[in-house]
Batch of 2 targets.
Target 1
Amino acid sequence: MSANDSRLSAINAITALEPMDLSSTDPLSKIWATDVFNLAKMEECLSKNAFKAMKKTAQTGVAIDSATADIVAAAMKDWAMSKGAKFFSHIFYPMTNATAEKHDGFIITNPEGNAITEFTGSLLIKGEPDGSSFPNGSLRMTNAARGYTAWDSTSPAYIIHTANGATLMIPSVFMSWTGEALDKKIPLLRSNSAMNKAAQRVLRIMGETDITTLNSSCGAEQEYFLVDNNFINARPDLIQTGRTLFGAPPAKGQQFDDHYFGAIPERVQVFMQDFEDQLYRLGIPAKTHHNEVAPGQFEIAPYYEAANVAADHQQLLMTTMKNTAKKHGMTALLHEKPFAGVNGSGKHVNWSVGNSTQGNLLDPGDTPEKNLNFLIFCGAVIRGVHKYGSLLRAVIATAANDHRLGANEAPPAILSVYLGDQLEKLFKDIQAGKIKPTKNGGVMDLGLSQVLSFTRDPGDRNRTSPFAFTGNRFEFRAVGSSQSVSGPLVAMNTMLADSLDWISDKLEVEIASGKEQSEAVVTVLKELMDLHGSAVFGGDGYSEEWHKEAVEVRGLKNIPTTADALPAFLEPEVKELFERTGVLSPLELSSRYEVYAEQYIETIMLEAKLVIDLATTSIYPASIGYLSELLLAGSTAQEMGIELDDSIAKNIATASNTMLKDVEVLKGLIEKEEFESTEAHMQYCAKEIRPLMDLVRVSGDALETLVDDTAWPLPKYSEMMFIK
Ligand code: ADP
Ligand code: MG
């Protein structure tokens, strides 16, 4: 079968498809968290003391002792085996956006040759996968590549069912034998502790006495595309890179805007139901789903949870989504920009901090005292976005997200913070000295209950901001759809910890000098706004004027590519931030820089090779094949004395020649191997290789609009997006 046959037969195959039959759908109460060894299950099968210890661990992060670990391990094994599990695995999150696991059997044999099962506390707590194949940056030198996993007992174990049986999965951290973080979970846990420490301090200064552990929370909205596998199989670029390296824009695109919140195609509905049922079994609270802006694009948002658990659930959600889509004959594309010129996919990370005694500190309260706390935390975020804007940009920097950020449907590559009209005015008034606190702090009452109702009104929401206050949380919108949420959460928690400490230092001085509490807060926030208020922006983030004003007037940075963004990890201020807060040592930080830079370079090199390959072996042959047909028709016509228009033939010849010429240049470019530094290598990818890939694409896409439709080998945009 020739390639073009496979494209057309793909269309035929799909149009003949019936949605999968999901006749047995169980009620939520029957399936909720059935595959999770959560606190409710522990309460059923653990002794009172063991359960108490586990509950404390889940709430405060304090580790359990080895006797408790043995009891928990035994109960966990019995539970898992009753669900059919024969294997267990420590699952961890290496510095790539992936997850990793190594499976071990519960089985051991006794001297009589009988198979018995064993799962001790030490097996539960610590595993030893061979770390050598996971990226570890410069840490490779210090640890001879040995890695250890350790159970993160604040995140519950669960069962994964595959055709190969059931496996008990144990969420774990991954570290070197010298204790360095090799994963995305350790820094997240550490950043949460740093935030807790700084928050406790400032709350005590504010006169709070009963303060339980503070936790960060995360609710992530995940966007994705669904494409039928018959199409995917005919697109080597989608298979290997997750995005189309060629493809002319469709005649019917998203300009009709009829997809957003529109009716969900039946096949997709069936997929969603299956997918969400599985999430429920895994204890992941899937809450909303809807169509997204582009045709074939959708969104799922679980209800928010403690950041550490939410991060694990996010990874599990992405894996479950991909596996379920496969089962339904589709591929879930999590790439940030699978289709050029069409809306890309992001992951809005909704984030707040709070505890059981003070509640959500990013929720404006009903009383003046609560409002003071709110203003402090909100101010701390403003300072963080301003002072560490380049870090926030770096944690969302990937080769894929570069296609999305700064485009006119995604947050700009300039980090600013949106507060909503009312709250922005309040902070500006504080800065202008217009707000004078009274003795009892009563002035803070002013308008804050209105702030609450206004900012919660979706009409007041600014969709063009990369970082927005949305009533009781901040929403980091520039995060990429395929990314782990950990990096962004680590950056947010850590910058908050730093800012809260800065505020505490200042408050202590003001209060020591005899100021009233509320007066001290206003004084410190005024100073904060003088220094950092320029990051507050409520206008249109997509506009030309903003790009100019941000950079030229406000001194904010516009950081367009990953090559420009990642070096922020090496900035002295960022290094000091992570060291001071104990979240990442300088070595851990620089190893992250190396790993991410390498991923960026490798992604672009792979794409460049594939561009050369597709242009040469797929697009060129199809174009020349059709050209020779045209030429033959032309000469036959001439013999018969008929005049045929030869403009298409000429345009095909020109575009084919240009394409081949650019392919040759690109081939030369990717051969270069010696670079002064990693940064120089990244810049080379961004400034030399990518533009050439785009040039090759221009010719390839022009050819798609010239060549006979039935002879075109690659499934077209309109087909992949509309045919389900
Ligand atoms: P929208 O699309 O309007 O932003 P969604 O309902 O799709 O809203 O998603 C909002 C996300 O924010 C959900 O995951 C929700 O659970 C989460 N969320 C709500 N409140 C908080 C909070 N205080 N902290 C963190 N996340 C929150
Ligand atoms: Mg949102």
Note: Residues 260 and 293 are 5 Å apart (CA to CA).
Target 2
Amino acid sequence: MGMQDGVRANGGDGRIVASAPGKVILFGEHFVVYGSSAILCAIDRRVHVGAAKSDGIRITSEMGTLECESFSRDAADVDPVLRPLYHIAKEACRMAGRSEGITLDVESEIPPGAGLGSSSACCVAGAAAALRVLGRHPGHNEGAVMRMAAEAERTAFPNASGADTAASALGGMITYDRKSGWAAIRRQSGGPGFGLVVSDSGIRHNTESVVGMVSGFRDSHPEEFEELSRMESGLVSDVTKLLVSGAPPDDAAGTASALGRWASLNQSYLSRIGVSNAKLDEMIGEMDGFTHGSKITGAGGGGCAIAFTDPDGMAGAAANLASRGHDCFAAGIDYSGCTTS
Ligand code: MEV
């Protein structure tokens, strides 16, 4: 069975397929690593993981293949790209008391290293598929999948806040902070009140090294970083109130335009901590010209930026941006989170 037709077909042979959405961070990336709150939104691009019981361990994805006979290897000795899935396979088998192996096949609609949560979605779908195929189906919203996915992600990126795996597991819009965990943002009325366009700079980043760079900034500018974190927390709290109530802060402006202004403010904080660059600045400047405002999403240093539009304005804005040569798409919000079949 080829990867393309194989990953999503459960084939009735006990094979399980789970899928989980990517995400964008609307507000709060990087500061969330140090305890501030962030707002995330799952998007309609998915990673699918097929799981089946097998004699040995086999993991296949676009990023590489791993085959071994037993779990004798320590996860730390596995290529970081496949390490989280190896950890999931090993841990799920240990929990199920299974000494034979498991096969995990990955198919992704999300480019890696673009800030759209491909590795988190892979961990979430991988954990859900592995737990379910081994007879431990905790339900996709339950803590076990999220916990295993966050733990797996930390085998490759120890300082991960856990925000990305939570958004992918749950779907919809959430707030997240390291101490209290996640809370769903449920609007009191209507749809989200905004549209989203995602544009890819084409520059690939390594989240861990960008987070390491920010840590360097924090060490060399402790007071400034603290002040920026305080401002970011205030911004996230104001945005959360707006998203929950659906009422713009001043009645003259709509939700989307308020979010756009906050995005531009958030972008100025991200620039200050050093995660923007000339290409992202140029793309963001262009997007600002015909949307309500834009910012980096995710780690930065490359990857994607998002722009806020009116709810019915995203297709037009994406077409406009594409006509200027940008690799972009209008992103829908995914409300299903992780699913299994
Ligand atoms: C990466 O998508 C988001 C960061 O805040 C890191 C994290 O939260 O783990 C940069």
Note: The chain is about 40% helix and 25% strand.
